[in-house]
Automatic annotation (TrEMBL), chain A:
Organism of origin: Thermoanaerobacterium butyriciformans
UniProt record similarity statement: Belongs to the GerABKC lipoprotein family.
Name of the protein in question: Ger(X)C family germination protein
UniProt-annotated location(s): Membrane
InterPro entries assigned to the protein according to its UniProt record, in alphabetical order: GerAC_N, Spore_GerAC-like, Spore_GerAC-like_C, Spore_GerAC_C_sf
Domain (Spore germination protein N-terminal) ranges: 22-201
Domain Spore germination GerAC-like C-terminal intervals: 211-380
Keyword Transmembrane: no
UniProt keyword terms in alphabetical order: Germination, Lipoprotein, Membrane, Palmitate, Signal
Mode of membrane association: Lipid-anchor
Principal cellular location given in the protein's record: membrane
Pfam families: Spore_GerAC, Spore_GerAC_N
Gene3D superfamilies found in the cross-reference section: Nutrient germinant receptor protein C, domain 3
Domain of life per record: Bacteria
UniProtKB/TrEMBL annotation, chain B:
PANTHER family reported for this sequence: LEUCINE ZIPPER PROTEIN 4 (PTHR22550:SF5), SPORE GERMINATION PROTEIN (PTHR22550)
The name this protein goes by in its record: Spore germination protein
Transmembrane residue ranges: 318-337, 392-411, 417-438, 445-470
Region (Disordered): 516-539
Keywords: Membrane, Transmembrane, Transmembrane helix
Family per record: Belongs to the GerABKA family.
Amino acid sequence: MKKIKVYVLLLLILSLLTGCWDKVEIEDRAFVMAIGIDTSNQAKNYIVTFQFPNVKQVTSAAGGGGGGGGQPNFSISEVGDTVFSASRHISTRLDKRLFLGHTKAVILGKDVVSDRNKFLEVLDTLDRSYELSRKLRLLVADGKAQDILLKNYKFDPDIGVYIDDIFKQYNRTSIFPNLDYNKITKSLHDTNGNAIIPVISSGKDELKIAGSAIIKNYKLAGWLSDGENMGYMWLMGFVKGGDITFNMPTTDGKEVKVPFNITNTVMKRQVIEQNGKIIYKIKYDVEGEVTEYSFQKHGEMFETNVLGTMEKKADKVIEKMINDSLKKFQKDLKVDMIGIGDYIQKYKPALWSKVGPEWEKKFPDVVVEPVVSTHIRRIGLFK
Amino acid sequence: MGLFNKLFKNNKSNKNGNDEDKDVVSPKVKENIEENIKYIKDMLKDSDDIIYREIWVGEEFQHKLELVFVDGLVDKSIINEHVMHSLMLDSRQAKPSIEEIKKNIYEVIKKAAITGGDIKEIDDLDKCITSILSGDTALFLDGHPKVVIISSRGWQMRSVAPPETEMVVRGAREGFTETLRVNTALVRRWIRDPELKIKQMQIGKRSKTDVALLYIDDIVNKDLLSEIKERLEQIDIDGVLESGYIEQLIEEDWHSPFPQMLNTERPDKVAASVLEGRIAILIDNSPFALIIPTTLATLFQSPEDYFERWMISSLLRILRFTAAVIALVGPSIYIAFTSYHPGMIPTKLALYIASTRQGVPFPAFMEALIMEATFELLREAGIRLPVPIGQTIGIVGGLIIGQAAVMAGIVSPLMVIVVAVTAVSSFSIPSYSAAIAFRLLRFAFMLFAAVLGLYGIMLCLILMLTHLVVLKSFGLPYLSPFVEVNLSDLADTLIRAPLMMFKKRPAILDTQDKKRMKDLRPEEIESMEIDRRNGNDKK
């Protein structure tokens, strides 16, 4: 009997003293799918835009029940002195509790990343949020984030999901980095403010993610174009797919463009110290297939070493991409965002203890030797 | 436990109903038949179903015999053909000398006159009455201080039918009936071992129900056996109507929702348990046998597991354990996720749930409670309804209530799915009494989930596990063999290992004879195969 009394007491304590303070029914939450943060020239510092899906439409799209109607998503902007206060003040205009647990993307306006203090403030707010997922996508808008979020896109009106789905296909092109919030902030805090953030821009009916913004010392330092971005992806070993194009000569002296589709790459790295110089060797084994090429004459395949020529051409193209990108980081920006320091620290601790303290100065002098060997697999049936 | 002990300590003073009666001194059978019959008639006054049949035998009909039996409990053909016919007609043909009969009529009757199969003699009138009421026939002889009890039990009984609560696809189709003798015979047919003991006793001061203990003498753990016997002897109750009475009176912890004895109406399950070294209790008037000791793992075993191939059986085992988890926490997980942790649901599902719950007037907990209660109601009603109408309740419940509730917007469609999956899961647990325990606990889990979310579910799980760890079935930890490291026992829990691996009886039972199968390795079988193919078959 005593035992039962204890149990009953425990149950009462549980139900009466704790209460359900954080209990919010799922239908009473406003799911934020994407957040846009811009600076403002007005009295308040920030304009924060929240994008919500029209929950009522979800079932009607799936064919069930009535309800729904109206536009497929809503976006609301709010101004505030800080991002946090804006997110609180937006409650005055919502009938539901703001819920950031499913937020897929945070888009920072170009003016936010251009201002070091504001960027730091915003980052701190995002880092402190217990609801935001570390897996969400952090992007920089080429203009104002608000402009991107206040539109209705035809492909997927749900911008957060739209962005997330674009990222899932990064290895079709490799022209934007597949980085999430966690990787970007880790890079920012590890390297004292250096990171690459993918760039988003919007067309009339669709979104586009391509290229990236280079952040140096918590401030926008430049942009990587599509090709440079792929070079960066090569240097980081992120390329698992994508396409490149090289030129092949034709019999009449002209050149024809040949598309090459990368199916797999293996990267091996090595660091050697020679005469006080650090040599960083990267060896790539690239596998892929030529997707279109018309032979000039019958039997060319067996007479001449066409495949060998193609492989060499592909090597050149990839090496050029890598070198272009390398030049940007080593000569223009002088920031190691390509993981050389990280590699030395992890695998050559003795060397790192020597060069680590002044790595910023050493980095531009590192000799990087990329060696690419491309293999064409599956030549197909066409002659 | 404390109360349980108290209950039994009080009982120890007046230990057994029969002992108490003995103090009053039961009357012995007198020589004078009239006195005996008078006593019986006094005791069985106002019982009009008792038949007294006087027979006069001897040359001049000078010897009076009297048969006493209960109409309806006896097989009339036995009495007519093997008792009355023998005594009245056949005995005359034999023509023993008159002196012989005069001198020793009892011997003659016992040795030569009655052709019935089973007779015994007693001199206690009260025991005689018990026998009569059990369906035996009492034969009183004038001038002889003993009663001949002729076994003539034979009443209308249900025939052996498939066990309705424990159906299998592969396996015997026989189930226990309400008659103890038939049930013990069913088990005997599985095990023809002289060591299979069927120890019988009577429990219930007034009902005097036959209770049989089944065990294999050179396997069973003797301590366990004496413990069970002791607990059974301590029962002092007016009547035992079903094995559930025995179960509740001898179990260790009556607070627990979990069954500490497995009940089954399958003789093959009883035979298998007895062979493992467990003890079965069969009770007259109940088709449910009790198996002792029972652990949580045995509640998930079905006889079919051992008849089908091990991979399939293992898969089914895993399925059942999963089903138990769903039956336990299904609705509470739904409540916790939708009310507290929508971040843990995949985005598209979260939006879908939010969308279907638009306009549902109840919080998730109330919604779940309403649907679960409705389901329990339907189930309960389904049992009560006569079979032809029983079908209707399925349609009314499943289709009309489910569909209508969703259409009316009172519950969300996902809730209906959750309740349905939970219901199906709870019925896939082979032991019905375990399934209802999980069903009961489900409501506790829902309450905890409603108050504290996932944390509450964990808390409730910890509470339940604490209870399970403490719980014992006749000294055997309820969670064994999970709580002690014994690899050979684990082979028959979450999975059902190949039969090859069951070389020993469960170690947790601590049986006398531990070995169960000869060590026949696959290689030996293989070499036998090769031998046979080569024609070297050892004949």
